[in-house]
Write a structure and sequence with these properties.
Length: 227
């Protein structure tokens, strides 16, 4: 929210990236059924090329994931949009993200909600994402290093939880930390392929829907995979 108010320091970026983003939104997102105008607007604005190594910047808006170091990846733009849309954010939510990675998805969530709490298990990635998000003026983001399968107890409950790594099952602790009416989006399956699931928590029920098949890196932790 604050980031929007103060304006980004990349207002003078090259026109090429702006065009690449516009094409990404039209050809990869709208054409595949992403409809939420807020999601489309923010993905057309956030400079994804800054979240990858300089050598990969020209491929940042391509239709696939890219390496970000430490054997981890930044997700394909369509997957980021699909997962974000599924959280149904309106602007006032408190969101927990598991797997900060490059910080790109964190930025998207931060532009669409009130506050994002993000957990990353690899310190070097968490440090880099923290620096970049600070530089870009995302003051509504808190990143910590740790095992995200255990959630962030002190800040619970959350209106939305997004897990950006592949889980063998839905971590019970994350379901506990989801508030009533909240949504969790999480890829569940084996190490090679998963189903992206959305679970909505009602007063005394959980409603689960399957959104797509997908492939993510492993969620490593106490309620995830062993290293
Ligand atoms: N959303 C990220 C982005 O936009 O760049 C991509 C995330 S990447 C696909 C998955 C991330 O989850 C990796 O950075 C990995 O280190 C992290 N991860 C895996 N297990 C984790 C855990 N238990 N807690 C926190 N982070 C974890």
């Amino acid at each position: 929210m604050l980031a929007r108010a103060c304006g980004y320091p990349y207002d003078n970026e090259g026109l090429d990236y702006a065009i690449a983003r516009e094409r990404m939104v039209a050809e990869q997102l709208v054409s595949r059924g992403i409809r939420d105008p807020r999601v489309l607007e923010v993905m057309g604005r956030v400079p994804r090329h800054l979240f990858v190594e300089e050598a990969l910047a020209s491929r940042a808006y391509s239709d696939y994931p890219l390496p970000i170091g430490e054997k981890q990846t930044i997700s394909q733009p369509y997957m980021v949009a699909l997962m974000t849309e599924a959280l149904e954010l309106e602007g006032m939510e408190r969101v927990l993200e598991i797997g900060t990675g490059s910080g790109y998805q964190t930025a998207i969530l931060a532009d669409l909600s009130a506050k994002v709490y993000s957990i990353e298990r690899i310190k070097s990635l968490a440090d880099r994402a923290t620096r970049l998000l600070d530089q870009l003026g995302y003051y509504n983001v808190l990143i910590k290093v740790g095992d995200g399968t255990l959630g962030w107890k002190e800040e619970a409950p959350f209106d939305g939880i997004m897990v950006t790594a592949a889980a063998p099952y839905v971590p019970p602790t994350l379901l506990e930390q989801l508030g009533e009416g909240g949504r969790i989006v999480i890829p569940v399956g084996d190490a090679y392929s998963q189903i992206l699931k959305k679970i909505t928590k009602g007063k005394d029920y959980l409603r689960e829907t399957s959104l797509a098949s997908c492939v993510f890196v492993k969620l490593v932790g106490e309620q995830g995979w062993n290293e």
